[in-house]
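Note to self: keep these together.
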Amino acid sequence: SDMVILASPISTFEGLMCQMADILPDGCIVTDVGSTKVFPHRWAKKHLGRNVFYVGSHPIAGSEKRGVEFARDDLFLNALCIVTRQRTTNARAFNIVSDFWTRLGCRVETMSASLHDSIFASVSHVPHVTAAALINSIPQRHMRFCGKGLIDTSRIASGPANIWADILSANAENIVHGIDGVILQLEKLKAAVKSGRYNEIEKLLENARNKRAELIKYKMQRKEIL
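Structure:
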């Protein structure tokens, strides 16, 4: 193989790297589509030979569904793909991986593994935890009365539990920090609601509304959403 792409749960990466180490040809590139990057870089350095080159990849595409029946030919069109590199990353391998994702239609950005894990704890991992906690907090007997709002808000809670358990375990410190941030915001809203401080409630809600509006505007300008 010239390139191997790991697309299995993150907890399997280290074992797969161990199995591959003795059979990959010199010059082979190993990359992945995992949602965390610090551990994969660490495992690659530990297990892959000096002549096999690891570059981390994380295409921001897909949905909570999995399996070939949900395949799409436009999956990567205009999608963002993070390609991670460390000081020791082979430059040729990095360029090949970046070009691979660009040719599939992605817009590639580069960062370190640690920065990647910090960012995606905030914008991906903690939102999943929050959606799961929201669903778990609602009594089952109330669920059938919900409207589209709850369905939209909780969509990502439908993601595969084993894959997300892996992600949470592989980025625990950043995710715990992010959960603390969500709890802080909930406590602010809780205190304002409990004491009837209408202006403060409105200010907190308006701040969220404005931040989301800026996000949607940015994503539409880049054609990442329609």
